[in-house]
Design brief:
about 475 residues; Aldehyde Dehydrogenase, Chain A, domain 1; Aldehyde Dehydrogenase, Chain A, domain 2; 2 domains; 7-stranded mixed sheet; binds nicotinamide-adenine-dinucleotide
Length: about 475
């Protein structure tokens, strides 16, 4: 029998009032129930919000240094549990163990970075137009903040939202994704063990429509930080804006890599396949379009096939495996539908394209890594986020057309170019409509001490990560002293 996990409210691990639970299933082996979680309702969410409200006064009064020290201690505890948390992650959402370990280790450093930000909640002083007047600003916390996260980075995204929220003095109601609540719960356990006061962090599992909606609409919640799909992000933004509260929404991507004729082709190929296929293509920063100059397209495509052949598909706990399962049956059907659409639109599959069945694949949601050629920019597979290991190769005649096509989508999260031409590099960096701009690197893979977020439909609100992250979780008070 799988372990039963509870909500955290008022510092106590608590069962839902509903008496209902849901199972967290291993997508590589659907016979395995990874854990049983509380199927909470609005009343549980309300209680968690009240718990956060009650704890706010005490937490706000602690010095930022003290709050940072708790985060530092939690980071140390998480560091001692990297392997265990990573294994839970692989079991609950399928990414390979090395990728999961990388993510949990990154979460440790994210918390260490934000622990220091407590002591850097620095304001401004300003000259005044009046005599004997001193003006200064301070950054103050907002109160109760709601944090709603997706399943694809169930540690790192949680860490980069909780870190700045907590260190700047807010209390939190946190709802993880129902498909991957266990790794997130383990991060919360680390905070509890580090001595975070009861009620400062509240963890409630349950559906987005029920628990999530209560967090969005409850008047005690002063800001909402959301990462997930555009569809849900848009809905949250609309609902929360009626209450005039801050909303941060990090959403999808359709990230391009441009390959010019002078590129280091081997490097471009290995970065393209890694960007497209790791985490089974289920990264918001995954590359799903590679835009290649005509004259090198044939050679480049052959090299892509050679590279992807080295990507074994299977259970992410197996050290030889590079591509795990998709997270669930819906996601598998979604990806297979997109592959069908691509074929019907006239794109040609040159690698993969099918669901994997039989043997080790029988009890999981596995699909072959898939590469399409003859893709036109207006095709559905070149426009919509597939969120699977599917790469579209788009041929272009020159650099200008490459930039035009790279920008020809509603998203603007991440992009990369492979070239050694300095002029074109700067021209691309200026013209590309994305929040993350890479040169000779993968579209995925970001550093936590610099801002992260996208242009257009990919993001809204203040950037996450980096020094700017605390700006979302604080408000500025301007003080005039007439002496
Ligand atoms: P999702 O939008 O389905 O769910 C995200 C979270 O929102 C979950 O916790 C879910 O329960 C909750 N939710 C759902 N409906 C809700 C509602 N009506 N009210 C409140 N909460 C609700 O996304 P997902 O499938 O978990 O994640 C995949 C998506 O996340 C992809 O589109 C991906 O690009 C995006 N993503 C973006 C980033 C980024 O930083 N830009 C990072 C990772 C993932």
């Amino acid at each position: 029998m799988a372990e039963i996990y509870k909500n955290l409210i008022y510092g106590e691990w608590t069962e839902s009032e509903t008496g209902k639970t849901f199972e967290n299933i291993n997508p590589a082996d659907t016979d395995e129930v990874v854990g049983i979680f509380q199927d909470s309702d609005e009343d549980d969410a309300k209680k968690a919000i009240q718990s956060a409200k009650d704890a706010f006064g005490l937490w706000k009064e602690k010095s930022p240094g003290e709050r940072g020290d708790i985060l530092l201690k939690a980071a140390d505890i998480l560091e001692s549990r990297v392997d265990e948390v990573a294994e839970s992650m692989t079991r609950e959402m399928g990414k390979t163990k090395p990728e999961a370990k990388g993510e949990v280790s990154r979460s440790v450093y994210i918390w260490r970075w934000f622990a220091g930000e407590g002591r850097r909640l620095i304001g401004e002083t300003s000259p005044s137009d009046q005599n004997n007047t001193f003006i200064y600003t301070v950054k103050e916390p907002l109160g109760v903040v709601g944090i709603i996260t997706p399943w694809n980075f169930p540690a790192a995204i949680v860490a980069w939202k909780l870190g700045p929220a907590l260190v700047s003095g807010n209390t939190v109601v946190f709802k993880p994704a129902t498909l991957a609540p266990l790794s997130s719960l383990k991060l919360v356990e680390c905070l509890v063990e580090a001595g975070i006061p009861p009620g400062v962090i509240n963890y409630v599992t349950g559906s987005g429509n029920v628990v999530g909606s209560e967090i969005i609409n409850n008047p005690e919640v002063k800001a909402i930080s959301f990462t997930g799909s555009c569809e849900v992000g848009r809905k949250i933004y609309e609902e929360a804006s009626k209450r005039i509260v801050k909303v941060q929404a990090e959403m999808g991507g359709k990230n391009p890599i441009i390959v010019l004729e002078d590129a280091d082709l081997q490097k471009a190929v290995s970065c393209t396949i890694a960007s497209a296929m790791l985490t089974t293509g289920q990264k918001c920063t995954a590359c799903s379009r590679v835009i290649v100059l005509d004259e090198i397209a044939e050679k480049f495509t052959e090299m892509l096939i050679g590279e992807v052949k080295g990507y074994k598909v299977g259970n992410g706990l197996n050290p030889d495996v590079k591509i795990g399962p998709l997270v669930d049956e819906n996601q598998l059907n979604n990806v297979l539908n997109y592959i069908e659409k691509g074929k019907n639109e006239g794109a040609k599959i040159i690698y993969g394209g099918s669901k994997l069945e039989g043997g080790i694949y029988e009890k999981g949601f596995f699909v072959e890594p898939t590469i399409f050629i003859d893709v036109k920019s207006d095709m559905v597979i070149a426009q919509e986020e597939i969120f699977g290991p599917v790469l579209a190769v788009i041929k272009v005649k020159d650099f200008d057309e490459a930039i035009k096509i790279a920008n020809d989508v509603e998203f603007g999260l991440s992009a990369s170019i492979f070239t050694n031409d300095l002029n074109k590099t700067f021209e691309y960096a200026g013209k590309i409509e994305c929040g993350i701009v890479k040169v000779n690197g993968s579209t995925a893979g970001i550093e936590f001490h610099v801002p992260f977020g996208g242009y257009k439909s990919s993001s809204s609100g203040i950037r996450e990560q980096g020094r700017v992250a605390v700006d979302f979780y604080t408000q500025i008070k301007t003080v005039y002293i007439h002496y």
